[in-house]
Design brief:
The complex is a heterodimer of chains A (80) and B (565).
Chain A (H helix, E strand, L loop, with lengths): L3 H15 L21 H15 L5 H6 L3 H11 L1
Helix pairs in contact in A: 1-2
Chain B lengths: L5 H16 L4 H19 L6 H19 L5 H16 L20 H16 L8 H9 L12 H9 L7 H42 L2 H37 L16 H4 L5 H23 L5 H20 L3 H38 L1 H18 L7 H8 L1 H36 L12 H31 L1 H6 L3 H36 L4 H24 L2 H8 L1
The chains are: A mainly alpha (80), B mainly alpha (565).
Chain lengths: 80, 565
């Protein structure tokens, strides 16, 4: 079972890489509106990054309905 | 039955009463199923033509059960393909039109929407994100009478609890808000759309004639006017329909998803799709765009090429959306045209920051000119794309000739120019109304006394009503003479009349938008302690207005417009 803190750490790494911004620190409430450039394209880039990093697969409904980073962490923790 | 028929008004009233008084559980499910069946039957008034449609939905449930049994295997793709293949066959797409169907005429009303609802359940159940719904829930979801004709496409997880459990009784205020939406919807569909339809019908022969004679300047003007009016017509028709069904749903205790979010405020072509037919866009995003982009990204994705893979995914999504809208080849053209639009938009978003620098691009986006131009280009592009919905084969053939193509392109440029000017004018008028005429004056202590507030709201109401009355008369007078204006009179007179008409329409739209909040403010200020009772009084007044509207609808639509003025 993965720890939330560890997941957040690894997520920060992915986010900083994709959005090209080393100052990003995600929290549970971080949502698409909070990060510049988080559009439908970046969303899938992010999902691909997360799937690779945590060796998991997300379903169509999960990819589409994620509202914030908190939900993403819940999902990763549940699968990990 | 259509939504503007008296029969539907009665049917909706009966549905609301039944769904509100009967308890949840089996009663609610059963009632809904009867209502759905009755509404579906009213579309054909015979059982046989409905058989293929019902068969398709039953087969859909078999697919859901199969998806549940063989989770996350390749079988799921086959099930989806199978449903799509049957859909293509039933809709008689040109590719398969040689295949035999049934020995009788049958209806495919709502089939396109049913396909998307069924695929959503099949995929989500197959991937384990959703539990298989009960059969009766499935039927109520797929056949729901409010969403049968033109959506919205709700998601099952949002819809399911509402058909099981009866929601708590609404407050007067909620009833009032829902009734307002229904009324607004009827005004949009029965009045505004009817006027716009008249316009479109007047302009179509003009456009044909201009194409045949190759009159460039006249053709460009008529084409721009025609496509612009058609876009407006489609908007008031479609979003008016949504207001009606969402409002009736709220009254009956069924919350339906929103389908429009001020599409005329779209910043760019990509933004438009989060504001126009939202539930369709969302469905396509969930099950097509995301899937295509993920598949491409997994195989070919690198840091640098994701943006281009995104452009491909956008193109595929919009091409499919076009083909979904209709079966003739012109809908494929529509899809490709929209796909080209999003791809151009996307490439601009990639390249513009490279040319102008990140800050230069940001500054450009802040500029009012850029916004107005981008918005006009976006809406005009949609308007031109929508030509696919009404253009005849002969007109389409003429568009390939140089003169025809010039009319087509010139029409787009003219529409963008007119749209930019109209955008500036509209925002300017709105700002004037908001900041000058109706601006709340701050009193010394920052608080406003009740009496002053009542008087101010009353003034807003009076000015708004007066503006609507005067502008309506202008519209009526110009409308009555429209045929004459387009045919014989001088150019200056024609343009003046059109400008007058546009101005009057804008004044009506803005003022009508002011009336509701003004009434609400006046009501709250005048009856601060009796908010609930006051809501009931206003509900009564609205009911009177609704009865009037219904009486007018009994007569045919053109007569109705004539009487309305």
């Amino acid at each position: 079972m993965l720890k939330r803190e560890e997941v957040v750490d690894r997520l920060n790494h992915i986010f900083r890489d994709i959005f090209d911004d080393d100052d990003i620190c995600v929290t549970d409430n971080t949502a698409a509106a909070d990060i510049e450039g988080w559009d439908s394209l970046a969303h899938i880039t992010l999902i691909l990054g997360v799937e690779r990093e945590f060796r998991m697969k997300m379903t169509a409904a999960e990819v589409g309905s994620l509202k914030n980073v908190g939900q993403m962490i819940d999902l990763i923790v549940a699968r990990g | 039955m259509t939504l503007t028929s008296l029969g539907f008004v009665g049917f909706a009233a009966l549905s609301i009463i039944l769904l509100r008084i009967l308890p949840g559980g089996g009663w609610r499910q059963g009632t809904l199923l009867c209502l759905d069946a009755a509404f579906l039957y009213s579309q054909t008034l015979a059982l046989l033509p409905l058989v293929p449609l019902i068969g398709f939905v039953l087969l859909g449930y078999v697919a859901v059960i199969a998806a549940e049994r063989r989770r996350a295997s390749h079988g799921l793709g086959l099930l989806v393909l199978g449903m799509v293949a049957i859909f293509v066959w039933l809709k008689r797409y040109p590719l398969v039109s040689a295949l035999p169907t049934f020995g009788f005429a049958f209806t495919v009303v709502g089939l396109s929407y049913m396909l998307f609802r069924i695929l959503h359940i099949v995929i989500d159940v197959g991937q384990g994100s959703l539990n298989r719904p009960r059969f009766v829930t499935y039927l109520n979801y797929v056949f729901n009478f409010l969403c049968l004709l033109s959506g919205p496409i709700a998601r099952l997880e949002d819809f399911e609890p509402q058909v099981r459990v009866r929601p708590p009784s609404p407050t007067w205020r909620e009833v009032d808000a829902a009734a307002q939406r229904v009324l607004r919807g009827y005004v949009m569909v029965a009045v505004l759309a009817a006027i716009a339809t008249n316009f479109v019908d007047l302009l179509k022969p003009e456009f044909s004639a201009a194409l045949v004679h190759g009159e460039l300047a006249h053709g460009v003007r008529v084409y721009a006017l025609l496509t612009g009016t058609y876009l407006f017509n489609l908007y008031v028709n479609f979003s008016g329909y949504m207001e009606i069904v969402i409002g009736i749903g709220a009254l009956a205790g069924l919350t339906l998803p929103e389908n429009f979010n001020f599409p005329f405020l779209s910043k760019n072509f990509l933004d438009l799709w989060s504001r126009w037919h939202i539930t369709l866009s969302n469905w396509l995003k969930f099950y097509l765009f995301n899937a295509v982009l993920k598949a491409l990204g997994e195989r070919f994705g690198t840091r640098s090429n994701m943006a281009y893979l995104g452009a491909i995914a956008f193109f595929v999504t919009f091409a499919v959306m076009g083909i979904w809208h209709g079966t003739t080849y012109i809908f494929f053209v529509y899809g490709v045209f929209l796909g080209a639009g999003v791809t151009i938009n996307r490439l601009w978003q990639i390249w513009a920051p490279q040319w102008l620098g990140k800050n230069g691009y940001k500054n450009l986006q802040q500029s009012q000119w850029y916004f107005q131009l981008s918005r006009a280009a976006t809406l005009s592009y949609l308007a031109v794309a929508l030509s696919s919905f009404w253009i005849t084969d002969a007109q389409a053939a003429a568009l390939i000739r140089p003169a025809g193509l010039a009319i087509f392109l010139g029409g787009y440029v003219a529409l963008v120019a007119a749209g930019t000017v109209a955008g500036f004018a509209w925002d300017g008028i709105n700002a004037f109304f908001r900041e000058r005429l109706f601006a709340p004056r701050a009193s010394a202590d920052g608080e406003q006394s009740g009496g002053l507030e009542v008087r101010r709201a009353g003034r807003v109401l009076l000015i708004s009503l007066l503006a609507v009355a005067v502008a309506s008369m202008v519209v009526a007078l110009v409308s009555l003479d429209l045929t004459g204006i387009l045919a014989g009179s001088s150019r200056v007179r024609r343009l003046t009349m059109l400008a007058l008409m546009a101005g009057a329409c804008a004044a009506i739209l803005i003022s009508v938008g002011r009336i509701e909040p003004a009434v609400a403010r006046w009501r709250d200020a005048a009856f601060p302690r009796h908010g609930q009772d006051a809501a009931a009084i206003w509900l009564g007044l609205r009911a009177l207005l609704a009865i009037n509207l219904v009486l007018l609808m009994v007569s045919s639509i053109p007569e109705f417009i004539y009487k309305a003025f």
